[in-house]
Amino acid sequence: MKRAQAHTLVFATLAFGAVASLFFQNAAAGQQVAFEKVGSFPAPSGADIIRVQGDYAYVGGDKTLTIFDVSNPKAPVRRGSYTFPDQLWGFRILGSRAYVGANFFGMGILDISDPDSPKLVGSFTSIGQSKVGDAFGSKAVFIDHMEGVVMVDISKEAKPTLMSSYFLDGYARDLLVRGSMAYAVDQPTGLYVFDLSKPGPLKPVGTFHGGDAPDAIEAGPAQDGRGPNVLAGIAHGKLQIYDVSDPAAPVLAASFGSYARWAKGIALHGERVYVAAEKDGIQVVDVSTPSKPGLVGAFKTPAPARDVAVTNSLVFVIVRGTNEGTVLILRETP
């Protein structure tokens, strides 16, 4: 696949685990990934979402988003938190803002510039359940479980105003923005690609309907300011890999793995997808060739792995049973 073909989407699926380092090798790639534990910290009650940006980890559980300083991974420090009026379904971090889907409260815009005192600076309530938000410039987009993708003007953050919405054919599940491109998924129909740099109402520039529709998606950084090379999504126990180098015509490249049907934690870093595979812990899949994914590593966790985030050489994993849990901090070893 040529670098000039800007966007490659990859969709992935999950499963869980117990502590020890396991080694898996992809015979074709001849690669192996192993891990060592370098630190941990108590997870907030009900924690099942983690994002990491710079020196901070952001953990969502129940109604609360909590910030941890992980600049020293051997001794993380709990900082501030913010509790929403309703259940926190999901969030994305962009610079000094978190865009939070808080159920019937709507999408909340949280100022996280002061990690000791995050503050709500704006919100927008739609007709249904808000699940996750993200932004591009003065536009924020978020998923409404019933309405689909909703776009609001946030040039005045304190009072976001409705710009447009686009109804997804099924039940809206997840959304993210990379560069000017927004990616949304619903069940059972599939993937929608939007270009937020275009003026006017929301309208997909490309769609993919067919196969297993993902519950959740993740992506690498934007390329040339427009979109990622790869995006990963969970689809009924399968890692679905889509080539979207042409955003107008996404193509299913491969399906991979067999994971817990309800697993949803996933991260994409470089050419690897990290799957929070419940009782099977963390599994690492090489997607450098989207049509030929391969298992290249794993780590058994002491309790089900709920979510995973990756930054540089560190991997952050939420592990918990029914309620209280731990965030493990792992480092890949040579």
Helix/strand layout:
Elements: E1 20-22, E2 25-26, E3 31-32, E4 34-43, E5 47-53, E6 56-61, E7 64-69, E8 77-83, E9 90-94, E10 97-103, E11 107-111, E12 119-124, E13 130-136, E14 139-144, E15 148-153, E16 161-166, E17 171-178, E18 181-187, E19 190-195, E20 206-209, E21 216-219, E22 222-223, E23 227-228, E24 231-235, E25 238-243, E26 251-256, E27 265-269, E28 272-276, E29 282-286, E30 294-300, E31 305-311, E32 314-320, E33 325-333
Antiparallel strand pairs: 1-30, 2-3, 4-33, 5-6, 6-7, 7-8, 9-10, 10-11, 10-13, 11-12, 13-14, 14-15, 15-16, 17-18, 18-19, 19-20, 21-24, 22-23, 24-25, 25-26, 27-28, 28-29, 29-30, 31-32, 32-33
Account of the 3D structure:
With 334 residues, the chain is mainly β. It has a single domain (20-333), classed as YVTN repeat-like/Quinoprotein amine dehydrogenase (Methylamine Dehydrogenase, Chain H), CATH 2.130.10.10. Helix content is 0%, strand content 56%. The chain has no helices and 33 strands. The strands form eight sheets. Strands 9, 10, 11, 12, 13, 14, 15 and 16 form an eight-stranded antiparallel sheet that branches. A five-stranded antiparallel sheet has the order 1-30-29-28-27, with no helix packed on it. Strands 4-33-32-31 form a four-stranded antiparallel sheet, with no helix packed on it. A hairpin with a 5-residue loop joins strand 28 and strand 29 (282-286). Residues 1-30 have low confidence and may be disordered.
